[in-house]
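Write out the bound-state structure for protoporphyrin IX containing FE.
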Amino acid sequence: MHAPNPDTPHPDTPPALFTWEFAADPYPAYAWLREHAPVRRTELPSGVEAWLVTRYADAREALADPRLSKNPVHHSESAHGKGKIGIPGERSANLMTHLLNIDPPDHTRLRRLVSKAFTPRRVAEFAPRVERLTDDLIDGFCERGSADLIHEFAFPLPIYAICDMLGVPREDQDDFRDWAGMMLRHGKGPRGGVARAVKRMRAYLADLIDRKRGEAETAGGEDRDLISGLIRASDHGEHLTANEAAAMAFILLFAGFETTVNLIGNGTHALLRHPAERARLQDALAAGDDALLTTAIEELLRFDGPVELATWRFATTDLTLGGQHVGQGDPVLVVLAAADRDPRRFAGPDTLDLARRDNPHLGYGHGIHYCLGAPLARLEGRTALAKLLTRLPDLRAAGAPEELRWRGGLIMRGLRELPVEFTPVPPSAAG
Ligand code: HEM
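---
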């Protein structure tokens, strides 16, 4: 018999979660959970206890289970505990009635309304604008030969894109950029305060909705933007209150912003760390072949996606999940990042394979809350990565991977900064 290796963690010893090391690479810990405790009650850094679901099959089941409510009223903990879940500031700013906090039938009604305004056609028509924004941002640093891709590229692109789409006038978009920056800092720093940023956005959006409602009454005809579309959708027989409209605009901004920052950031980071895969994609793009770009975006979402954990769910009744008893009122968090590396579902799950075909990843969720903005996210992700790799062909990481700092938030996974170097090039002709 061999003596046990003192360096090998005992299978009964759970790995440390939510440390800085974990943030840098959570995948070994998730592999342990998947194998040894696939549905595990865990104390989160906030002190709230929740069930973490890490296997693909259980994750899909949980995301589609109507007994798991999105409405925080079903949370069993004290009012004190409840304050620690959800988006900071949304409760006090009266923004709770958005898609990610409600169940059918309210969810069905609101989702139908927003789907009427957020159409695939509207997203497709937006493609030239996203291309232009992307080129302008690259023009801002391409002659320098170095950049921080998070602050100069991944962060501004989605905020300007969603502002344009909602109909926020260009002159106000830098305010949004500031508020979004405050949200990203998660309340830290001299001008921090997620709750303060949320309140300012709320006040601005309420005012904008009022103005657009006035314009819609006088103008008629085609909706120029998403907020006007939302107002019009509600005018066609279905009811969208002023508060619901503000909460909807807010969740579109909130859900569509940091996620896309992290798709571009995590995606570029993964490509820089996998030179053979990156060269394969660059060759395909140079040959005018976009097919690999399509599978690449999905693979990057699976391999190191922006949404590490799906948003909160609460058991409305006692139930069994992955063989584990979950009590009524218990919070459940589905770990998308763990499910998307489950070897029971994905061949070679820890390998980045940009041409992966069988890839039903959960990066956009599953079931009735499946990401509403997926077509816009795909458009932004495709445009950003294709333009970066084409315009800055020798793009490379500046500094060692272990120097990179990851954000410590619970739901999202993303880098604080991504310093890069490249041979300087002139701005685009259009710029
Ligand atoms: C790469 C970027 C994105 C990723 C990875 C992503 C991921 C997700 C995920 C995982 C969910 C489901 C959460 C859950 O069930 O707990 C979701 C929902 C949602 N997403 Fe996205 N998202 C992205 C971009 C966007 C964009 C650009 C928008 C809008 C402009 C958006 C709007 C929404 C909305 C409104 C929901 C709630 C849908 C509902 O509850 O019915 N997302 N997203």
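---
The chain is about 45% helix and 10% strand.
Residues 63, 99-100, 111, 162, 251-252, 255-256, 259-260, 263, 301, 305-307, 310-311, 363-365, 369, 371-373, 376-377 surround protoporphyrin IX containing FE (CB under 6 Å).
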